[in-house]
Amino acid sequence: MTDRGGPSKAKRPEAKGAKHNTRTKQTKDESPPRCRRKNSTEEKQSGTTKEQKPQEREQKMPNQPDTKPSVPSTQKKKITKHVAEEINKQQRTPTDNTKAPGRRTKAKTSAGRAKSPEQSAEEMTKTQPQILKDTTKDSVKTTKTKKCSGRAKLSERFEEETMRTQPETPKDTTKSSMKITKAKTCARKAKSPEKFAEETMKMQPESPEYTTKACADQAAVDSILSTTLEKLKIKRNDKANAAEVINEIIKNIITHLKQNTECFKEVEPLRTGSYYENVKISNPDEFDIMLAVPVDRVDINPFGEDGAFYSVALKRGNSPLKKFQESSTLSASKMLKKFREEVKKCVKESKDEYQEWEVTRKKKGCPAVTLTTSVQSVTTSLDVVLCLMVRSSWPAFTKEGFKIESWLGTKVKQEYKRQPYYLVPKYEGKGTVEQDGVLVKDVWRVSFSHVEKDILMNHGSEKTCCERNGERCCRKDCLKLLKHLLSLLKEMDHSFDKFCSYHAKTTLLHACCSRTRDSDWRTSSLSQCFQQLLKDFVGHLEKGVLPNFFIPDQNLLSGPDQKKCKKLASCIKEQCDKGFPIFM
Q1: Which CATH number goes with the domain that contains 515?
Q2: Which residues contact 225 (CB under 8 A, 6 or more apart)?
Q3: What share of the chain is helix, strand, coil (3-state, %, to 5)?
Q4: Is 486 exposed, middle or buried, given 0-12, 13-18 or 19+ CB atoms closer than 10 A?
Q5: Residue 285 shares a structural domain with residue 365
Q6: For 367-426, how does the pLDDT look when each residue is reduced to its tens digit (9 = 90+)?
Q7: CA 476 → CA 200, 283, 456, 479, 480, distances in Å?
Q8: Same domain as 469, residue 362
Q9: Residue range 321-342, pLDDT digits in tens
Q10: Same domain, 175 and 31
Q11: How far is 460 from 521, CA to CA, in rounded Å?
Q12: Range of the domain at 419
């Protein structure tokens, strides 16, 4: 039994052959898109739409019995021959079909989904329906446009949109599609590495040179600071020789006071200062020792408004210090005078037996008795400071200060505040000025030097900071460099004499509370940390305000005038900008 569609197929041998060849060619070279059976003939001739209706009826009724071809069938045969001739012409010029896969592949690559032509052809062959014989360049360009844009539209909708916008002539349509597709492809296509590098070099011609110069300057500063720190290190032998002499004279003074005095027999040594804080620089030529006299049951009243100075009154009792009390106020000047006399006696008695020491002239407002000697041709001084040890809660003025919670922790702060504080016989201004019945020379200044020492010895937010098995930081190194810079500037200009190392230490303590992590002070970042510390110090100088670390109401820069503060700030900025030539 013959196929009922046989006669119809027999009448189109050319169309069948053309269909087979075109399908084989396109499947091998590229992955063609979905094509529409319904509108395939419309892509070739705009005037043949009406003639396709008999063909559609024939395809929809496959079981219709064989009949003689009618007039529309003859027209369909002629149209089929015309389409076959058009396809044969396209097969004779395979250049366009050959270029299409290349463009498609390139467009896919630019979109980030690169596949080989063989893989793409295999996938498209499996997933797409049967391809009609009249696939043209338009469908190839349409596929390329869809791939570049990355929008997967349905074939019929895309075909309708394309037909509405394209002109009637197929050749013109092809050229227009090529131009549009090429423009979209160029918009999506990434620049080649060579072209991108060339444009980058044109836009930034000076970047490499500037970076190299900046790195060179930074390396030079690092080298200068590292070399300076090596020079500031104290030799071990010099340190040992000086410590031996200092310890001997301190021992003699304490022994003398305990054996020969009643008011100072309970003194306790408190070693403070840069040497015991391990921030001493250059030479072991300056030492500080506090000899504390414990006092119980005393009244402490603020003297002035900044909370740094106090008047002390002994309560009822048989304290040996009562002989220094006048009108219910313990006289700091009288007590310091007696202490100075006893130290002189000790030095005079030990002059022939031990190292030869001399007592220097008393300085106005200074709470220390200063002794000097020579240790291996180096002049060494010792400040022996009288102080009162008060075992009570810290003054109320310290409530807003000492902000170490985020740095060392709340528990550490509480432990420090349980410790006693100290009062030294120091005053500012004229000693004969009277306020509320108390002379200025008889007041005491509060001191937390023991806490400062302990913080500098245990300065890390991590317990292992600067320990043998821990990571080192540069906090102390920055302080040493700042102290050294300040001392050199004071040698060059004596108008800076009122600035001291305590200003540098206070600046560091404030900086540690603002930059709390140990990683903020890495040894590898010495130059950056030091320059940042200088910015902090310059900021205080320019404002003329450096709050006491424990008593924020006290301004440590109230002594020097504003003009000198700004002058020192200018000198420091100049050294920083020039790479610290003063250290060379």
Answers
A1: 1.10.1410.40
A2: 481, 526, 527, 530, 580, 583
A3: 55, 10, 35
A4: buried
A5: yes
A6: 999 999 998 888 999 999 999 999 999 999 999 999 999 999 999 999 999 999 999 999
A7: 44, 16, 8, 5, 6
A8: no
A9: 999 987 789 999 999 999 999 9
A10: yes
A11: 10
A12: 213-450
> What is the β-pairing status of strands 286-295 and 434-435?
unpaired
- Range with the poorest average pLDDT among 206-220, 262-276, 357-371: 206-220
> d(Cα 48, Cα 44) in Å, to the nearest integer?
9
443 with 466, same domain: the answer is no
Are 494 and 544 found together in one domain? yes
168/166 Cα distance (integer angstroms):
7
Considering the domain architecture, whether residues 144 and 188 belong to the same structural domain is answered as yes
- Three-state SS for 10-63 is HCCHHHHHHHHHHHHHHHHHCCCCCCCCCCCHHHCCHHHCHHHHHHHHHHHCCC
Cβ atoms of 97 and 25 within 8 Å: the answer is yes
Assigned token pair, 130 = 């049967």
Look at residue 207 and tell me if it is in a domain: no
CB 282 within 8 A of CB 300: no
What's the number of domains the chain is made of? Answer: 3
d(CA 270, CA 290): 5
User: What residues have CB less than 8 Å from 33, skipping those under 6 apart?
Assistant: 124, 128, 139, 142, 143, 146, 155
Task: Indicate if 43 and 173 belong to the same structural domain.
Answer: yes
560 φ, ψ (degrees, to nearest 5) = -70, 145
Is residue 29 within 8 A of residue 97, CB to CB? The reply is yes
Q: Give the residue carrying structure tokens 């003699």.
A: 252
In a domain, 165, yes or no: yes
Tens of pLDDT along 145-173?
444 444 444 444 544 554 544 444 444 44
CATH number at residue 385: 3.30.460.90
Structure tokens at 430: 């004229």
Question: Across residues 6-12, what is the average pLDDT?
Answer: 41
